[in-house]
Amino acid sequence: MPHGQDVEGDTTEISSEYECLQCGRIVKAETNPGECEKCGGDFQNRAKSVE
Questions:
Q1: Exposed (0-12), middle (13-18) or buried (19+): which is 42, by Cβ within 10 Å?
Q2: Is 16 helix (H, G, I), strand (E, B) or coil?
Q3: Minimal CA–CA distance to 47: which of 8, 7, 10, 12?
Q4: Under DSSP, is residue 45 helix (H, G, I), strand (E, B) or coil?
Q5: One-character DSSP codes across 28-48
Q6: CA–CA separation, 2 vs 17, rounded Å?
Q7: Residue 41: what pLDDT?
Q8: For residues 29 and 20, what is the distance between their CA atoms, to the nearest angstrom?
Q9: Which of 1, 8, 10, 25 is least surrounded by CB atoms within 10 angstroms?
Protein backbone atom coordinates (compact mmCIF):
# COMPACT_ATOMS: atom_id res chain seq x y z
CA MET A 1 0.00 0.00 0.00
CA PRO A 2 1.51 3.39 -0.97
CA HIS A 3 2.26 5.96 1.68
CA GLY A 4 2.58 9.74 1.41
CA GLN A 5 6.36 9.47 1.79
CA ASP A 6 6.88 6.75 -0.82
CA VAL A 7 8.93 7.68 -3.87
CA GLU A 8 7.85 6.19 -7.17
CA GLY A 9 10.11 5.63 -10.17
CA ASP A 10 13.83 6.01 -10.64
CA THR A 11 15.40 8.12 -7.87
CA THR A 12 19.03 7.96 -9.07
CA GLU A 13 18.99 11.53 -10.40
CA ILE A 14 17.13 13.15 -7.53
CA SER A 15 19.28 15.53 -5.52
CA SER A 16 18.67 16.58 -1.94
CA GLU A 17 19.75 19.57 0.08
CA TYR A 18 22.35 18.92 2.75
CA GLU A 19 23.18 21.38 5.53
CA CYS A 20 26.46 21.57 7.41
CA LEU A 21 25.76 21.12 11.11
CA GLN A 22 28.61 23.50 12.05
CA CYS A 23 28.54 26.46 9.66
CA GLY A 24 25.08 26.08 8.08
CA ARG A 25 26.35 25.83 4.49
CA ILE A 26 23.75 24.27 2.18
CA VAL A 27 24.66 22.16 -0.85
CA LYS A 28 22.63 20.10 -3.33
CA ALA A 29 23.89 16.57 -3.95
CA GLU A 30 22.62 13.11 -4.90
CA THR A 31 24.37 11.54 -1.89
CA ASN A 32 25.70 12.87 1.40
CA PRO A 33 28.70 15.08 0.54
CA GLY A 34 30.55 13.94 3.68
CA GLU A 35 32.71 16.70 5.14
CA CYS A 36 32.14 20.42 4.55
CA GLU A 37 34.94 21.95 2.48
CA LYS A 38 34.45 25.28 4.26
CA CYS A 39 34.71 24.22 7.93
CA GLY A 40 35.15 20.43 8.09
CA GLY A 41 31.73 19.84 9.67
CA ASP A 42 29.34 17.00 8.90
CA PHE A 43 26.37 17.35 6.54
CA GLN A 44 22.81 16.27 7.28
CA ASN A 45 19.99 15.87 4.79
CA ARG A 46 17.62 18.81 5.37
CA ALA A 47 14.61 16.56 4.66
CA LYS A 48 15.41 14.42 7.70
CA SER A 49 14.21 15.33 11.17
CA VAL A 50 16.91 16.32 13.69
CA GLU A 51 14.96 14.78 16.57
A1: middle
A2: strand
A3: 7
A4: strand
A5: EESS---B-TTT-PBEEETTS
A6: 24
A7: 97
A8: 13
A9: 1
Q: What is the pLDDT of residue 4?
A: 57
pLDDT of the chain along its 51 residues, tens only? 555 555 555 555 688 999 999 999 999 999 999 999 999 999 999 987 766
Neighbour-count burial of 20, counting CB atoms closer than 10 A to its CB (0-12 exposed, 13-18 middle, 19+ buried): buried
Contact 43, 19 (CB under 8 A): yes
Q: What are 20's strand-pairing partners?
A: 43
In 3D space, the residue among 27, 28, 30 whose CA is nearest the CA of residue 12 turns out to be 30
Vertex 47, ends 37 and 7: CA angle to 5°?
Answer: 120
Stretch (H or E) spanning 26: strand 26-29
